[in-house]
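RECORD TYPE: inverse folding
INPUT: structure tokens
STRUCTURE:
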């Protein structure tokens, strides 16, 4: 159950990271509320997952999910460059997340 909570927390981290772009400096109400809600939920779920998971592993996986998802959505939604080196680096982060899950 802790890994499922951590995964959802990572997805919510993607939501708030991308949401920041749409808040326009927290001047737009609905995107700001959704972003703040996602931030809160993400941290709460991370905290709950830490009841049973190691902090170093959980935090690295949480930020890794957020990093990979945000980078990919930045490419897809915001037109950021999808160069081979950038995609390879994203792949390395995914490999690290998988490695941490395997050894945990």
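DESIGNED SEQUENCE:
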């Amino acid at each position: 159950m802790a890994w499922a909570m951590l995964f959802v927390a990572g997805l919510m981290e993607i939501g708030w990271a991308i949401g920041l772009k749409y808040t326009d400096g927290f001047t737009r109400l609905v995107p700001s509320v959704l972003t703040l809600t996602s931030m809160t939920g993400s941290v709460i779920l991370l905290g709950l997952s830490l009841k049973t998971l190691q902090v170093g592993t959980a935090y690295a996986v949480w930020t890794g999910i957020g990093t990979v998802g945000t980078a990919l959505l930045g490419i897809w939604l915001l037109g950021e460059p999808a160069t081979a080196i950038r995609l390879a680096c994203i792949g390395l982060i995914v490999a690290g997340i998988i490695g941490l899950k395997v050894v945990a």
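NOTES: The chain has one domain: 2-103.
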